[in-house]
Design a protein that fits this description.
With 238 residues, the protein is α+β, with helices and mostly antiparallel strands. The protein has helices spanning 30-38, 41-47, 87-98, 133-142, 182-192, 223-230, and strands spanning 3-5, 9-11, 20-22, 60-68, 74-82, 111-119, 126-129, 157-163, 169-175, 204-212. The chain folds into 2 domains: 3-119, TonB (TolA/TonB C-terminal domain), CATH 3.30.2420.10; 126-230, Fusion Protein Consisting Of Minor Coat Protein, Glycine Rich Linker, Tola, And A His Tag, Chain: A, Domain 2 (2-Layer Sandwich), CATH 3.30.1150. The protein contains 6 helices and 10 strands. β1 (3-5) and β2 form a beta hairpin.
């Protein structure tokens, strides 16, 4: 059974279908982890506000992977899976997660655990999943543009985009089983939101998923675009 919280979000109970604890090294008490996460539910809920107008249709589950040091501090938080499709919300969850302190694992050894968070849209716009030749053609044309942003991750990353009736993606999300370069992610999301897609429906939002490989063929990164995407050159991780 799942406990529901107000504000369009619910968190799964600690069980094999939800949160899992990796006890190969350090060991965390599941109930203590749940209690600590509950203390931060307001911050977690607040992340959904970053979706802006996309709250009308973007919803889904974000699976966070916490990497915890022997002192209980979060060394990093990864978005390893997401059906939400909003990078701003996903990145906010990472930022919140990095600030959370847990009880030190047994033995003061590092450990990891996974924690799911789910957001529900207001359902003001109907969403239809799209998968077909029209989207594949669009993707083959536009995907090489992402090479100019740089390498997002060392492995394939998963992308979700919601295409609004005007043909432009109104919301884009990214996830991977490893660390994402956040500056590259910013650049890619901004680039994708400029794509004019042909897979549209009047009055409906269409949703599509695709993979972003570590190396994207045919296009080369240009120093001017890369510098613009990374600002002062400071690299963050997602």
């Amino acid at each position: 059974m799942k406990r529901r919280a107000s504000g369009g979000i619910h968190e799964a109970d600690p069980n094999p279908a939800g949160m899992t604890i990796d006890n190969e090294l350090g060991v965390l008490d599941t109930e203590e982890v749940e209690a600590t996460m509950r203390d931060h539910f307001d911050d977690i809920r607040g992340c959904y506000q970053r979706a802006g107008k996309a709250q009308r249709y973007a919803g889904g589950r974000v699976m966070l992977k916490f990497i915890i040091g022997g002192d209980g501090l979060s060394q990093d938080v990864l978005v390893i899976e997401s059906t939400l499709g909003n990078y701003d919300v996903e990145r906010c969850l990472v930022e919140v997660g990095r600030r959370i302190s847990f009880h030190a694992p047994a033995g003061h050894k590092s450990t990891t655990f996974e924690y799911p968070v789910e957001f529900r849209s207001t359902n003001q716009l109907a969403v239809l999943d799209v998968d077909g030749m029209k989207f594949d053609h669009d993707l083959s044309v536009f995907l090489p543009q992402l090479a100019a942003c740089g390498q997002l991750a060392a492995v394939d990353a998963s992308a979700i985009l919601y295409i609004e009736p005007n043909g432009f993606p109104g919301s884009v999300g990214l996830s991977a089983g490893t660390t994402l370069d956040e500056d590259v992610g910013d650049c890619m999301v901004q680039t994708i939101r400029r794509w004019k897609m042909s897979a549209t429906l009047p009055g409906r939002v269409t949703r599509a998923t695709f993979n972003i490989p570590p190396v994207i063929a045919t296009a080369e990164a240009t120093p001017s675009r890369r510098a613009s995407a990374s600002g002062a050159g400071h690299r963050r991780r997602h």
